TrEMBL record:
Gene3D superfamilies: Calcium-transporting ATPase, cytoplasmic domain N, Calcium-transporting ATPase, cytoplasmic transduction domain A, HAD superfamily/HAD-like
Lineage, opening ranks: Eukaryota, Viridiplantae, Streptophyta, Embryophyta, Tracheophyta
Organism name: Digitaria exilis
Protein name: Phospholipid-transporting ATPase
Necessary cofactors: Mg(2+)
EC number assigned by the record: 7.6.2.1
Length: 1200
């Protein structure tokens, strides 16, 4: 018997998302050759294949190439309005209307744009290197005469025959021809495609089985006619023409690019789709362009500044036109030798228009040219610090956190809702066999994490509920005794052969045999140690096999037709090896929810072993098979409440005649061709999976990842809402909700689901509606009832949880219902969506993002989470067990869910405040500088004359004020990382946008306006008619301009020093170094002849004049004293949370007064109804309520 005969029942393959929506129909091969089915592959015949000109296997994910980089990168830079404005001014600087030299306008623009393009180029270069690593992988390709040679992946062509060896990735989409197994099956791992860790079985056509050696391909020729490239992962239609016969092809023979060959020594395959035609590349979408809310608001501020710029330029041009017309004819000493259009008194309107252009260039310093490049540089450095954070390093995998894009750093500090996958994200995807129920008796004395956590927090008392969570959860691990990996079971009644003394030992024997035989796993023996490891299709199967081995039933060998088990305690002779012949194997899938194996034992008895969901198994029990149903149901409920995943086990003895009759019908269904084949297989399999006898049930624990409960608790205290989106059934999702404290006892659950088909049909018949309309009406009623229940709840501490399944969610996401659903979800403390498809995950994320209007973060680890990750404002991928698809699509990647706490509460908080303060400061300093030019312009009769030297203006943004603001954006910390974690409520400063609201922005702009007035008018008053040189000379324009510029440099650098809360030597170097650089520059510049009016200005004019130094001191103080008064008043009378903490730390009260410190810590968390702390608080309230009820009765008794 061949494996290909056994692994045939694979009906109802579920589509992930709408992957199949764009694929061709699989209604047989009749459409081959028609529209959408035009591909022709000449196998092993390059001469015929080349003229068809299909794409090569070269792939690229870069944005640019050598030819397109410059034009495309330039286009990207000048999509920004500010850069477009500066480009226009740079062009105009070459004309007579510009008040500056061309170099002072062109140089800063070239520097800023060049730096941004360099960053773009480096990021794209990294993508190119990654692509080259993939394209240069090697694979064995048939070169002719039965010989194979290694070639790069990128050199593969359609029609090539390749040989893929164990643990290699498939280089393209292949048709499986043969494998190292004689019947042509192979095992494939597809987690890079669909996130599933279980192995898939593929099988070749029987016609190509003889092609099992290199030499057999010497004369191999065939033609494949199939569907065109499409993104459908689970469909394939085509014909294989070989040796004058035509064979139909289906997805079972197709090996997709980026999946991996497992448990198979080698396979031979022929290339069908290459490069960007392959299904995985057809599914890849460009990451959506994401911009942070701060960046969008920053654009709005720049538009406001543009409006201000246009306004003052208009005022200036009108003023110039009026002065030209009315005053210029009387200024005989200013008459030009040759009149021109720029100052023609006879045409003042035209002169005014030309002057408008001059003013737009002159006042352009209101718009900070270096803002974009500075922010990009700061974000890159912030991302570097995220990547280097040792506290987010995972020792097991060696992976660090990775900021895959630096555009969204500040968004991390403004997250309102977290949408999380469950398996592999909250849980480890590692199952531990913990308990079981056999013959109505529960076995297993171990406790799940939920039970341990509940016991710990109950034992911790209620007087001090500020007990560190880490202490409670670390103690949990000490109570676990993991015998071997995959088993945490402990019960002497079953271990060491003691089960033979139990009253129902025969039923226990059947239970252990079902564990050891009902599976599709492959045993792998370690030659060095002799130990056996199992390659199972699911983690549950692996846990069952390891448990069976510990009970004395070791599955150790599988052949083409049999499985072998080593039984320790079933014979008085000791260990016995038994062979069971496999007759049929009906695989597990999400629709069947069960798996069956039919086999023959050594006595010739035909046995059917079936395991599956309890609801499915119980429906198929015989009347005499329900002996243990009541007790088993009770145990299943207990296991479910403990957060465990359960399966029911059953069996049936088959008569030879009954089996033969059924098998004949099954073979007919299996060999049928047509769209009904899968339905026929399901119908036939259902016939034999009846009249079962219940044996018992298993309970395995899907272990939570380390630190998940603490992380969720901290995020809840930080005020974040958490939604869980999972493909698991409702019961399992609820169990995990309890395990990680998203749900708790006493929380009122609102469960939304579509009633069963019969009930919906009855409702539809009563109300004369279609079945679909009846289902919608039922769901609408449930949502309305839930909303009403929430509104009528009078207890302010009552907590609601919303649980919805995939069928109900499909209706809830429709336009006429989604806002009602969202409003109900917002009112609930936690939301769990079960049985959701990848597409539904993305749609829920979009609904939350658009409906709430706040920042959403999606986190997942599988390819089925990619849509959700890309749809959210921030996508976080977990580089865990399920491949790298989620990571590749993400904005940030971490190794475990628990690192999300530090990523948001620490780095998110810091990055938000840094970027917000940095942008506000940028606008402040440019307004303070730019408006002084306008004031002087008005003072000088709107002549277009600048008070500052061109070189001063060139260096202001690029050199003299850029480094301090960059150090603010990179190193500023209002509180340390430890304090961020101890006071999670500080995080709410981001979602509330306290540091970048309009009050704060306008406040900084007002500060800039005040500083510009103080700098200009104080200097004007001081120098107006005051002698500054020993000879009695008064200050000229160069002296006044240089002094004003000195005051600006001092004022803005002192302002940033006052703004900073955290100083390192770098900040000191940049702030004071910038001021020093100004003096070094003016000294060096004054020594050159090019300095013109500024020749030796510091040494000969300003340096010896005390009034210069006094004016600098006075003006700097005048500019910064108002800010100092404001911040002093705020800290004293209306302090923010971080002000209080800073003061406590500065006065060391956290060390000297622990009581006060604990009190402040307990206050510094958002009131939450989920998380471990909420559980403790609810318990305290419950105990206090009981004591309060006892109090009055005790008092009455005493009085009487």
């Amino acid at each position: 018997m061949r494996w290909s005969k056994l692994y045939t029942f694979n009906c109802f393959r579920g589509h992930h998302g709408d992957a199949g929506a764009d694929g061709p129909s699989s209604d047989g091969a009749g459409a081959v050759g028609g529209p959408g089915f035009s591909r022709v592959v000449h196998c092993n015949n390059p001469g015929l294949q080349k003229p068809l000109k299909y794409p090569t296997n070269y792939i690229t994910t870069t944005k640019y190439n050598i030819i397109t980089f410059f034009p495309k990168a330039i286009f990207e830079q000048f999509r920004r309005v500010a850069n477009l404005y500066f480009l226009l001014t740079a062009i105009l600087s070459l004309t007579p209307v510009c008040p500056f030299s061309p170099v002072s306008m062109i140089a800063p623009l070239a520097f800023v744009v060049g730096l941004s393009m360099l960053k773009e180029g480096l990021e794209d270069w990294r993508r190119f290197i990654q692509d080259m690593k993939v394209n240069n992988r090697k694979i064995a390709v048939h070169k002719g005469d039965g010989e194979f040679m290694y070639r790069h992946w990128e050199e593969l062509c359609v029609g090539d025959v390749v040989k893929v060896e164990k643990d290699q990735f498939f280089p393209a989409d292949l048709l499986l021809l043969s494998s190292s197994y004689e019947d042509g099956i192979c095992y494939v791992e597809t987690m890079n495609l669909d996130g599933e860790t279980n192995l898939k079985v593929k099988r070749s056509l029987e016609a190509t089985l003889p092609l099992e050696e290199d030499e057999s391909f010497k004369d191999f020729q065939a033609v494949i006619r199939c569907e065109d490239p499409n993104p459908s992962l689970y469909t394939f239609t085509g014909n294989f023409e070989y040796e004058r016969q035509v064979f139909a092809l289906d997805p079972g023979q197709i090996l997709l690019r980026d999946s991996k060959l497992r448990n198979t020594s080698f396979i031979y395959g022929v290339v069908i789709f290459t490069g960007h035609d392959s299904k995985v590349m057809q599914n890849s979408t460009e990451s959506p362009s994401k911009r942070s809310r701060i960046e969008k608001k920053m654009d709005l501020i720049i538009y406001i500044l543009f409006t201000v710029l246009m306004l003052i330029s208009l005022i200036s041009s009108i003023g110039f036109a009026v002065r030209i017309k009315l005053d210029l004819p009387h200024w005989w000493y200013l008459q030009p030798q040759k009149s021109n259009k720029l100052d023609d008194p006879s045409r003042p309107a035209l002169s005014g228009i030309f002057h408008l252009i001059t003013a737009l260039i002159l006042y352009g310093y209101l718009i900070p040219i270096s803002l974009y490049v500075s922010i990009e540089l700061v974000k890159v450095l912030q991302a570097h610090f995220i990547n280097q954070d040792i506290h987010m390093f995972d020792e097991e995998t060696g992976n660090t956190a990775q900021a895959r894009t630096s555009n969204l750093n500040e968004e991390l500090g403004q997250v309102h809702t977290v949408l999380s996958d469950k398996t592999g994200t909250l849980t480890c995807n590692q199952m531990d066999f913990l308990k079981c129920s056999i013959a109505g008796v529960s076995y297993g004395v171990g406790s799940s994490e939920v039970e341990i956590a509940a016991a710990k927090h109950m034992a911790s008392g209620y007087d001090d509920h500020d007990m560190p969570l880490e202490d409670i959860w670390e103690e949990n691990n000490e109570d676990e005794i993991e015998l071997v990996e995959g088993v945490t079971f402990s019960d002497d009644r079953l271990m060491h052969g003691n089960w033979t003394k139990e009253p129902n030992s025969s039923t226990i024997l059947l239970f252990f045999r079902i564990l050891a035989l009902c599976h599709t796993a492959i045993p792998e023996t370690n030659e060095a140690t002799g130990s056996i490891a199992y390659e199972a299709e699911s983690p549950d199967e692996g846990a069952f096999l390891v448990a069976a081995r510990e009970f004395g039933f070791e599955f150790f060998k599988r052949t083409q037709s049999s499985v072998f088990v080593r039984e320790k305690h079933t014979s008085p002779n000791g260990t016995t090896e038994r062979e069971f012949k496999i007759l049929n194997l009906l695989e597990f899938n999400s629709k069947r929810k069960r798996m069956t194996v039919i086999l023959k034992d050594e006595d010739g008895q035909i046995l059917l072993f079936c395991k599956g969901a309890d609801s499915i198994i119980f429906d198929r029990l015989a009347k005499n098979g329900r002996v243990y149903e009541v007790d088993t149901t009770r145990h299943l409920n207990d296991y479910g409440e403990a957060g465990l995943r359960t399966l029911a086990l059953s069996y049936r003895v088959l008569e030879e005649a009954e089996y033969s009759s059924w098998n004949a019908e099954f073979l007919r269904a299996k060999t049928s061709i047509g769209p009904d084949r899968e339905l026929q297989l399901e119908r036939v399999s259902d016939l034999i999976e009846r009249e079962l006898i219940l044996v018992g049930a298993t309970a395995v624990e899907d272990k939570l990842q380390k630190g998940v409960p603490q992380c969720i608790d901290r995020l809840a205290q930080a005020g974040l809402k958490i939604w869980v989106l999972t493909g698991d059934k409702m019961e399992t999702a609820i169990n995990i909700g309890y395990a990680c404290s998203l749900l708790r006892q006493g929380m009122k659950q609102i469960c939304l689901s579509i009633p069963t088909g019969d009930q919906v049909a009855q409702d539809a018949k009563k109300s004369s509606l279609t079945t679909e309309q009846a289902a919608k009406e039922s769901l609408l009623s449930q949502i309305a009832n839930g909303s009403q229940m929430v509104k009528l709840e009078k207890d302010p501490d009552a907590a609601f949880a919303l649980v919805i399944d995939g069928k109900a969610l499909a209706f809830a996401l429709e336009d006429n219902m989604k806002h009602m659903f969202l409003n109900l979800a917002i009112e609930c403390a936690s939301v769990i969506c079960c049985r959701v498809s990848p597409k539904q995950k993305a749609l829920v994320t979009r609904l939350v993002k658009e409906g709430i209007g706040q920042t959403t973060l999606a986190i997942g680890d599988g390819a089925n989470d990619v849509g959700m990750i890309q749809e959210a404002d921030i996508g976080v991928g977990i580089s865990g067990v399920e491949g790298m698809q989620a990571v590749m699509a993400s904005d940030f990647s971490i190794s475990q869910f628990r690192f999300l706490e530090r990523l948001l509460v620490v780095h998110g908080h810091w990055c938000y405040k840094r970027i917000a303060q940095m942008i506000c400061y940028f606008f402040y300093k440019n307004i303070a500088f730019g408006l002084t030019i306008f004031y002087f312009e008005a003072f000088a009769g709107f002549s277009g004359q600048s008070v500052y030297d061109d070189w001063f203006m060139l260096l202001f943004n690029v050199v003299l004020t850029s480094l301090p603001v960059i150090s603010l954006g990179v190193f500023e910390q209002d509180v340390s990382s430890e304090i961020c974690l101890q006071f999670p409520a500080l995080y709410q400063q981001g979602p509330k946008n306290l540091f970048f609201d309009w009050y704060r922005i306008l406040g900084w702009m007002g500060n800039g306006l005040y500083s510009s007035l103080a700098i200009f008018f104080l200097n004007l008053c001081i120098f107006y008619d005051q002698a500054i040189r020993a000879g009695g000379q008064t200050a000229d324009m160069a002296a006044v301009g240089t002094t004003m510029f000195t005051c600006i440099i001092w004022a803005v650098n002192m302002q940033i020093a006052l703004t900073m809360s955290h100083f390192t030597w770098i900040q000191h170097l940049f702030v004071w170094g910038s001021i020093t650089t100004w003096y070094v520059f003016i000294l060096a510049y004054g020594m050159t002849l090019r300095s013109g009016d500024n020749y030796q200005i510091l040494l000969e004019v300003l340096g010896p004049a005390p009034i210069y130094w006094a004016a600098t001191l006075l003006v700097t103080a005048a500019c910064n004293i108002p800010y100092l008064i404001h911040i002093s008043y705020q800290r004293s009378c209306n302090p923010l949370d971080h002000h209080v903490i800073q003061e406590i730390k500065y006065l060391k009260k956290d060390v000297e007064d622990q009581t006060m410190w604990k009190r402040e810590r307990s206050k510094a968390r958002q009131k939450t109804k989920i998380g471990f702390t909420a559980r403790v608080d609810a318990k305290i309230k419950q105990i206090k309520g009981k004591l309060h009820k006892k109090g009055p009765s005790l008092t009455i008794h005493t009085v009487s």
